[in-house]
Amino acid sequence: MKWGLSSSKETMRDKILYILAIVGLGLVSWTLYKVWFVLPKQANVAAYQILYFHVPAAFTAFTGFFTALVMSGLYLKTGSLKYDALAAGVTEVAVVFASINLVTGMIWARYAWGIWWTWDARLTSMLTCWLIYAGYLILRRAIDEPTQRAKLSAFLSIFGCVDVAFVYKSIEWFRTQHPSPVLSVRSGGGMGPGMEAPIYWNWLGLACIGVVLIVIRMRQEEVAREIDSLRRMAHAY
Amino acid sequence: MDAREFQFVFAGFCAAWIIVVIYAITLTFRNRRLRKELDRVKKMLEKR
């Protein structure tokens, strides 16, 4: 990928990306090793190992959606399409991690509850969240005019973040089939000593991989904008 | 961990990685398509 930037800046960026990707994959591999071979078996939770992907994927997705909210707000304030491109890139990657959260959750539910899906508050609000952001991505494809696209997308991103807050709090507000909070930061305390740390390490690993994907996606947005402006120039002749 | 539990945990891990890999492949294809399009538009402008 050799677009836009000067070659030395580009090389530096690439190096940082490679380092981030290696750190991310290293952290995820290390967590997998800990989960399979080091940690004691959590006897009271069935197939609990899935949670080491399910929870960090949700954290990564929510971090992405929150970042998109900030970028959308910045776009509405400044009108700079740079923020719009960043919001779009972050949202797309966050939707990927939200998909991981939903799919791993369904697999866990099939084992633990005997069903793939139930319409309880947590699961339904998370699916709604996924649909809102998938709608965001579809909306962006449907509108050609960049400013209009950016404005509508920004409003949808801000609206979507309300649901993210709802998803986060739903297991406290409703008595759902989904387990109540287990992490100590949410006063859960449902995991044994040393069992929690790998969740955060895996979150960091997935976040590093997410950043790499976002930067690649951002470059694509830059190129798409360059193509748009070149096309306009061609039509102007 | 019994065999059935292992199957589900393994399926969960695989699903997570498959989603990431599919997205990475999508990005690669989109990259290629954009690069081709950029070259095409640049060539079109040069001809004019």
Describe the structure.
The complex is a heterodimer of chains A (237) and B (48). By secondary structure, chain A is an all-alpha fold. Helices cover 77% and strands 0% of the residues of chain A. In chain B, 12% of the residues are buried. The mean pLDDT of chain B is 90. Chain B has 48 residues and is mainly α. Classes of the chains: A mainly alpha (237), B mainly alpha (48). The A-B interface holds A 1, 3, 32, 41, 46-47, 49-50, 53-54, 57, 93, 96, 99-100, 103-104, 107-108, 110-111, 209, 213, 216-217, 220, 223-224, 226-227, 230-231, 233-234, 237 and B 1, 4-5, 8-9, 11-13, 15-16, 19-20, 23-24, 27, 30-31, 34-35, 37-38, 41-42, 44-45, 48.
How large is the count of helical segments of chain A? 6
Largest protein interface, residues of each chain: A-B, 35 and 26 residues
N- to C-terminal separation of chain B? Answer: 69 Å
Class based on secondary structure composition and strand pairing of chain B: mainly alpha
Uncertain segments of chain B are none
Q: Any idea what the radius of gyration of chain A is?
A: 20 Å
End-to-end C-alpha gap of chain A? 29 Å
